[in-house]
Amino acid sequence: TGGHRVHQQQLYFQPTLLTDVTPEMPVFKEETFGPVSVIIPAKNAEDAVRIANETSMGLGASIWTNNLKLAEEMALKIEAGAVFINGMTKSDPRIPFGGIKQSGFGRELGSYGIKEFLNIKTVWIK
Fold first, then answer.
1. How far is it, in rounded angstroms, from Cα 126 to Cα 114?
2. How many CB atoms lie under 10 A from the CB of residue 35?
């Protein structure tokens, strides 16, 4: 669903859901930005974690479930800079945000993010 411009004169797209995605497709392995969600079915929680970790990217992930205990266990196993439970991946200026793997190194935002802009120098005199 989605994938169409809201207005022909503007560069806005409707929220888009991609289904029937297979591991051979670029959208399975690469990051998507904008109003796009990739829906990949999994057999169980273990399979879902395996699928999530099968990519070289690791910016963010989201888990949707009523079982919060299971979601917390899965979040610890997913290789991503942020894992959201029952919410979409987004940044908030109060908390650190950033990826791992090919999605980046380090954090922005929050008190940890401020430290990313420091240049610490060691001067040793003997």
1. 32
2. 14
Domains, the chain, in order of start with CATH, read 16-115 (3.40.309.10)
What stretches in the chain show pLDDT beneath 70?
Answer: 1-7
- The DSSP element (H or E) to which 62 belongs, if any, is strand 60-63
Question: What pLDDT, on the 0 to 100 scale, is given for residue 50?
Answer: 95
Q: Are 16 and 5 in contact (CB under 8 A)?
A: no
Kindly give the pairing relationship between strand 36-38 and strand 16-18.
Answer: parallel
Give residue-wise pLDDT tens across range 31-51. 787 788 888 889 999 999 999
β-strand pairing of 36-38 with 60-63: unpaired
Handedness of CA 101, 104, 109, 111 (dihedral sign): positive
Could you give the CA distance from residue 16 to residue 75 in angstroms, rounded to a whole number?
25
What distance in Å separates the CA atoms of residue 94 and residue 99, rounded to the nearest whole number?
Answer: 17
- Token representation of residue 93: 């200026």
Structure tokens at 37: 């969600």
